[in-house]
Specification:
alpha/beta; 13 helices; 4-stranded antiparallel sheet; TIM Barrel; disordered C terminus
C-alpha cells in the first residue's frame, strides 16, 4: 500500500464528475493520483517517477485548500478561485489542418468553416485588454492555412499584445517563403515549431509523413527573417524519448535562429481514444532525467515554474559553448519559493524566445573570461532555453495544478485554463467522447 501524501480533487475519466483525489507515494518513490467514481470505479495514474526529489521540486507549494475546486473544470471561466493571471492566451483561428497527427489535443483536421477575420480581430482586442497585453498564441488546427493570418498578427501587435506566437507544423513556411515574409512584416515574434526529432521515421510514426527536411527549411526561412524559432517535440515513449539529446544538439547547432526547445510529454486527450497504460505516461521528472543523461547537462540546472504549478513544467537556460555543449545558467538551488506573476513570465519568454536585433559582436566574445557587457551579448545571441509543459488529461487531472495555470484559451468570450478547455472523456468501452467544456 502506498502512503497518502497530498489531498486534491480530480475527475472521473469516463463521466468527468468532480471527485476527491489523493496523491499516493509508493515504496519505490513513484507518486500516483488516485480517485474513485461511485459509478465507474477506481482510477489511478502515475504523475512522478521519483527521478527528482518530490519535496524539493514542489518548493513548498501549498496544497489545494479544503472546499476549493468543487466546480472545476466545468465551471471554468476563469473563476475567483483561480490563482494565476494569463501569461499566454491561445486563440484557435481554424480547425482545418494539412496533417492528421497520431496525437492532437485539438483533434484538428475538421472541415469546419474558419471563423471570420473580423470576429477574430474582435477577440484579439478583447484578449489584449482583459489579459493586459499577454503573449498571444495563434493556433488551430494549422493556422497557416489562413491566407489572412498576417492581418491578424498585425491586429494583435496594434492591440498591445506583448508577443505574437504562431503554433505551426511549419509546412507552409517551408513551401512558401513569401507567406512567412508577410507574417514577419506584420510583426510575428515567435514560431512554435512542431519538431519531434532528427529522423524521418519519427515523423512517419507521429505525423504520417517524412517531414524532417521541410522542418529544416522552415527554420532556415524564419532565421533569415529574424523570427525566433522554438522547437516543440511531443515526447512519446518508445518513439522519440531516446532522441532528446539529438534534438538539443540540433537546436544548439541551429542557434541563434533556434532560441529554445519546449518539450511536451504526450497527453492523452483530443484524438487519443482510450486511457493509456501506466507505462505509456512520460512524467516530468523522467523527462528531466533523460535530458540530463542524453544531453550531458546537470539535472540540477532545471527549475520548476513559479508562474504555474511546479508539476506543470520546467525551464533551464544555457550559454552555448563554441567548443560544443551547453553551460548552465540556472540551478534549482537558486529557485525562488515565492510565486511569480504572469507579467514576469511573459518577459522571460520575450527575452529568451524572440530573436534579438543585430548588434556588433564584442571582441573576445567567446573567451573563457568575459566582462559583463560580453556576457549580456552572449546571453542575447548565444544562449539556448530548454523548457517543458506537462499537459493534463482526464486520466491524470489534478485540480490543484489547474488552479495555478497561466496558459489560457479564449473561447466564446471566456478565458479558460488550457487543460480544462481540451479535457475530453473516454467512454467505458474506450472511445473518446466530446468532453470539451462550453
Amino acid at each position: 500500500m502506498g502512503e497518502g501524501i497530498r489531498r486534491t480533487r480530480s475527475v472521473c475519466p469516463v463521466c468527468l464528475r468532480n471527485l476527491p483525489a489523493e496523491l499516493v507515494r509508493e515504496e519505490d518513490g513513484c507518486v500516483f493520483l488516485e480517485r474513485r467514481c461511485p459509478e465507474h470505479g477506481l482510477f489511478r495514474a502515475p504523475v512522478w517517477r521519483g527521478r527528482v526529489d518530490w519535496e524539493t521540486w514542489l518548493l513548498g507549494t501549498e496544497p489545494l485548500p479544503a472546499g476549493a475546486g468543487l466546480r472545476c473544470p466545468d465551471g471554468c471561466g476563469l473563476c475567483g478561485e483561480h490563482e494565476s493571471g494569463s501569461c499566454c492566451v491561445l486563440l484557435e483561428v481554424t480547425q482545418r489542418c494539412n496533417l492528421r497527427c497520431r496525437f492532437c489535443f485539438a483533434n484538428g483536421g475538421s472541415a469546419a468553416d474558419d471563423p471570420p477575420l473580423e470576429e477574430l480581430k474582435a477577440a484579439v482586442r478583447e484578449i489584449a485588454v482583459r489579459c493586459e497585453g499577454p503573449l498571444l498564441q495563434l493556433s488551430g488546427g494549422e493556422p497557416t492555412l489562413r491566407d489572412d493570418l498576417p492581418e491578424l498578427v498585425r491586429c494583435a501587435k496594434e492591440a498591445g499584445c506583448r508577443c505574437v506566437q504562431l503554433n505551426t507544423n511549419g509546412l507552409r513556411l517551408a513551401r512558401e517563403p513569401g507567406y512567412a515574409e508577410r507574417l514577419a512584416e506584420a510583426g510575428l515574434d515567435i514560431v512554435f515549431l512542431q519538431f519531434d526529432g532528427t529522423r524521418d521515421e519519427i515523423y512517419e510514426t507521429l505525423r504520417g509523413a517524412a517531414l524532417l527536411e521541410e522542418k529544416r527549411e522552415a527554420i532556415r526561412v524564419c532565421s533569415a527573417l529574424r523570427v525566433g524559432v522554438t522547437l516543440v517535440p511531443t515526447v512519446v515513449r518508445g518513439v522519440n524519448d531516446g532522441e532528446l539529446g539529438a534534438i538539443v544538439a540540433f537546436a544548439r547547432r541551429e542557434a541563434p535562429g533556434v532560441r529554445g526547445v519546449h518539450f511536451q510529454p504526450v497527453s492523452f486527450f483530443g484524438r487519443y481514444p482510450t486511457l493509456p497504460r501506466d507505462g505509456d505516461r512520460y512524467t516530468l521528472d523522467e523527462l528531466m532525467a533523460a535530458l540530463s543523461e542524453q544531453a550531458g547537462i546537470p539535472l540540477s540546472c532545471f527549475q520548476p515554474s513559479r508562474c504555474d504549478h511546479p508539476l506543470c513544467g520546467f525551464h533551464a537556460s544555457f550559454l552555448i559553448d563554441p567548443k560544443g555543449g551547453l553551460r548552465p545558467l540556472s540551478s534549482i538551488a537558486h529557485s525562488s519559493r515565492s510565486r511569480g506573476c504572469a507579467r514576469d513570465n511573459r518577459e522571460y519568454v520575450a527575452r529568451h524566445w524572440t530573436r534579438p536585433a543585430p548588434e556588433p559582436e564584442p571582441a573576445g566574445a567567446f573567451a573563457e573570461e568575459m566582462d559583463f557587457d560580453t556576457f549580456l551579448y552572449r546571453l542575447r545571441h548565444e544562449s539556448l532555453t530548454l523548457s517543458a509543459m506537462a499537459f493534463q488529461d482526464a486520466g491524470n487531472l489534478n485540480i490543484e495544478r489547474l488552479h495555478r495555470c497561466s496558459l489560457h484559451v479564449y473561447e466564446g468570450g471566456k478565458i479558460k485554463p488550457f487543460c480544462a478547455r481540451y479535457l475530453s472523456a473516454v467512454e467505458a468501452g474506450g472511445q473518446t467522447k466530446n468532453g470539451n467544456f462550453t
